[in-house]
Design a protein that fits this description.
heterodimer, A: 370 residues, alpha+beta, 7-stranded mixed beta sheet, two-stranded antiparallel ribbon, 11 helices, 17% strand, B: alpha+beta, Butyryl-CoA Dehydrogenase, subunit A, domain 2, Butyryl-CoA Dehydrogenase, subunit A, domain 3, 4-stranded mixed beta sheet, 4-stranded antiparallel beta sheet, 10 strands, 48% helix, globular, binds flavin-adenine dinucleotide
Chain lengths: 370, 390
């Protein structure tokens, strides 16, 4: 057994760290946060040139065919940099297409996505839905060459810069996934503002919008589930990078900030919080990388590992963020300090693909079924 | 022990209710982190109508324009104001902290000039304690004041000063003897924010609003008559103010949290997730019940403290327990709310951004008015008598 990244994985992670340090310093992050769509083409193109948009996609579709562990290694660096990009949205969408079993659409859409020449997103969440496919109610009706869609989707990432939107809907009793052109007639895309300005969310209102079916029935259910698992690997690894940054920054501050004539890090109330932060981030690392590995192996325990990782990393990152702000005192509560950027990104990572309550319930279901 | 309101407390509440029914502004005045000049003007007007109605500075003795109410009546006042959705009061720092300090330590001239202006809303006050290098260790402050003729000349920087950008006056802690031990060389000055050499830079908070500020003092002349209390006796005054601050905040926070909880429950009744109303989910019910328990217990402990102050006149270091309780309770409350409401609650578009704002703002609660760590140190060392560790 070897729990470390292998040589090539280490090199991949190092190159990702170098890339984001150079291309996406926090000044750049803030610039993109202030921009209209939260998107920077130069940064996106850079990510694409590295091949990361096609990291886990099969080579036959111009992907690199690498593992989820490699995906986690790169995503961790995006989280450390808080890099704002359509990477999460596009990776989720690509995974959904790749798992759909629809050969035509795979060869039509995947190569552009793998090369980063196209951006895509998934429109899943609706009013009252909860990341379980049964809660998806949006209506799809049969039409000449596919379906027409009517209803409202919310919290759709990066819709304003997407070239394709994958809409999850219900046709009769069947779940379906349909590909929609963002400029299609009857589709209204409105920005909504979350806490995390490194990720943009939109509300999408569909009135009889034409879509092409990517998958339906069980195939759609399975593809959706698999793609969400890919998304969870990215979100958890992103959280790891953020946790690391917060811990490192906080420990440095505790060493240099003096009150009562001593570094605040010499007070046990501060030391114990730092020690807990390390405990949480190390445990998160175990959970996240194990989930990535198990998913790759098609391991029986993959489902459980994913639930555990998402529930644990989400909470750990929040607690670490709370401690980080607390130990920084007043400066930690400002916009000027970078802590809040990480804090808010952790929040969006916590909520996307199901929050800890959701994943604890899923885990309980698995435990009871055994 | 008798927890019923007394005859006179009931009468007080009756009068207040009658007045509020008549005098409340027709339109609510709310900011949720987005305050502007208009907001502050409306709040000054509101303060003025409280004053006209005899409801400003109610805990102050009658001779200073107050009503001489007991702490319990003051708590009733805060509860009723909240129950009627009355606007926030601009006077809180002036009424709760600066006014009482001037009454206790000020000379007649200071009392005559400042006290009425706090009550009628013409002076908004801020509290200039913290500095970049002196937060928890506020006694190490470096802003200095040197006596020159009839003035003190002030140089230095303050930070995290709430309301400084809209304040007329500041209660400023300065070092007047740099050779004395750190607690013995501090004085308190009353500084006109319009004085030459004062500049204020708003600081944006992680919650997106700019409620606190940096203040820079460059050769600011403060008339020597604006020294409050004796020279180099500022630390004693500061301790009293800090203890007042901790105890004062209790009843007000209870009501605020109670309202947030009520709003949450309302939303839970009409919002569903996965086909189930949020209010029907047993996990959610556990969470709101837990918050309710803690809120009610907080209120009881807070009332016990008030009754103790009524009997003993001064708040003690036990105020630190209340400060820890309310600040961390608020964080638990908003955390529970975020968990219950689901991923929409992160949006500005959800209930006007109220939950996102409350969630982020709550992080400041365990830092402002003395951090949780410092409060626990105070409880351990000053209440429980454990050995000092620093
Ligand atoms: C929203 C907000 C409003 C504020 N309004 C005002 C205002 O109006 N006027 C004003 O003067 N100030 C104000 N403050 C400042 C506030 O009082 C200080 O931020 C606070 O006292 C902490 O000081 P600091 O920020 O310098 O942190 P530091 O004192 O540097 O503390 C950093 C960390 O070290 C810990 N620490 C420090 N010493 C010890 C110790 N001995 N043992 C254990 N842990 C320790 C702290 O608990 C904290 O976690 C405000 C702050 C906030 C967040």
């Amino acid at each position: 057994m070897n729990f470390d990244l292998n040589k090539t994985q280490q090199l991949l992670q190092e190159s990702a760290q170098t890339f984001f340090t150079r291309e996406c310093p926090i000044t750049k992050v803030r610039e993109i946060m202030e921009s209209e769509n939260g998107h920077d083409s130069a940064l996106w193109n850079g990510i694409a040139e590295q091949g990361w948009t096609g990291l886990t996609l099969p080579e036959e579709f111009d992907g690199l065919g690498l593992s989820y562990v490699d995906l986690a290694a790169v995503s961790e660096e995006m989280g450390r940099a808080c890099a704002p990009s359509a990477f999460l949205a596009t990776s989720w969408a690509s995974a959904l297409i790749a798992a759909s079993g629809n050969a035509d659409l795979k060869s039509k859409l995947l190569p552009d996505l793998a090369l980063g020449e196209s951006i895509a997103t998934v429109a899943l969440q609706e009013d009252g839905s909860n990341w379980d496919s049964f809660s998806i109610q949006m209506k799809a009706e049969s039409a000449d060459s596919g379906v027409t869609l009517t209803g409202t989707k919310r919290l759709v990432m990066d819709a304003a810069v997407a070239n394709a939107i994958l809409v999850v809907a219900r046709k009769g009793d069947d779940l379906i996934v349909a590909v929609v052109d963002p400029s299609a007639e009857g589709l209204e895309i409105t920005p909504t503002e979350g806490m995390d300005l490194t990720r943009r969310f939109y509300q999408l209102v569909f009135s009889n919008v034409a879509g092409e079916i990517l998958a339906s029935g069980e195939a759609a259910e399975n593809a959706l589930k698999q793609s969400i698992q890919t998304g969870i690997i990215i979100a958890c690894a992103d959280l790891l990078g953020g946790m690391d940054w917060v811990l490192k920054t906080t420990v440095e501050y505790a060493q240099s900030r003096q009150q009562f004539g001593k570094p605040i890090g010499s007070y046990q109330a501060v030391q114990h919080q730092c020690a807990d932060m390390l405990l949480l981030s190390e445990s998160s690392r175990s959970a996240a990388y194990y989930a990535a590995w198990a998913l790759n192996e098609g391991d029986d325990e993959a489902n459980q590992a994913i639930n555990i990782a998402k529930a644990y990393c989400s909470e750990a990152a929040r607690v670490i963020g709370n401690c980080g702000i607390q130990i920084h005192g007043g400066i930690g509560f400002t916009w000027e300090h970078d802590l809040h950027i990480y804090y808010k990104r952790a929040k969006s990572n916590e909520l996307i693909f199901g929050d800890p309550t959701h994943h604890r319930e899923k885990l309980a279901q698995l435990m009871v079924a055994e | 022990m008798d927890l019923n309101l007394t005859e006179s407390e009931l009468q007080f509440r009756g009068e207040l209710r009658a007045w509020l029914k008549e005098s409340l502004p027709k339109e609510p005045i709310v900011s949720m982190g987005r305050s502007d000049a208009d907001y502050w003007n409306k709040l000054r007007d509101w303060q003025n109508s409280l004053y006209e109605g005899g409801w400003a500075g109610i805990t102050w003795p009658k001779e200073f324009g107050g009503r001489g109410t007991t702490p319990i009546e003051a708590a009733i006042f805060i509860e009723e104001m909240a129950a009627f959705d009355a606007p926030e009061r601009v006077g809180v720092i002036g009424e709760g902290l600066v006014g009482p300090t001037i009454m206790a330590e000020g000379n007649d001239e200071q009392k005559e000039y400042f006290l009425p202006k706090i009550l009628d809303g013409s002076h908004i006050w801020c509290q200039g304690f913290s500095e970049p290098n002196s937060g928890s260790d506020v006694a190490s402050l470096a802003t200095k004041a040197v006596r020159e003729g009839d003035d003190f000349v002030v140089n230095g920087q303050k930070i995290w000063t709430s309301f400084a950008a809209v304040s007329d006056w500041c209660l400023l802690l300065v070092r007047t003897d740099k050779d004395a031990p750190k607690h013995k060389g501090i004085s308190a000055l009353l500084v006109d924010m319009k004085s030459e050499g004062v500049s204020v830079r708003p600081l944006k908070q992680m919650s997106g609003d700019s409620a606190f500020n940096e203040m820079f003092f460059t050769n600011v002349k403060v008339p020597a008559k604006n020294l409050i209390g004796a020279l180099n006796d500022g630390w004693r005054i500061t301790i009293t103010m800090l203890m007042n601050e901790r105890t004062n905040l209790g009843p007000a926070t209870y009501i605020q949290f109670k309202k947030a909880l009520a709003e949450l429950i309302e939303t839970m009744k009409h919002k569903s997730s996965g086909g189930k109303r949020l209010i029907d989910d047993p996990i959610n019910r556990q969470k709101i019940a837990q918050i309710q328990m803690e809120l009610e217990i907080f209120k009881l402990t807070s009332n016990r403290a008030l009754s103790k102050i009524t009997n003993n006149a001064v708040p003690g270091p036990e105020g630190s327990i209340l400060k820890i309780f309310w600040s961390e309770l608020n964080q638990r409350l908003v955390q529970a709310a975020m968990e219950i409401l689901g991923d929409e609650a992160q949006l500005q578009e959800f209930e006007n951004g109220a939950w996102a704002y409350r969630y982020l703002r709550s992080r400041g609660n365990t830092v402002e008015a003395g951090t949780s760590e410092i409060q626990r140190n105070i409880v351990a060392m000053r209440v429980l008598g454990l050995p000092r560790s620093y």
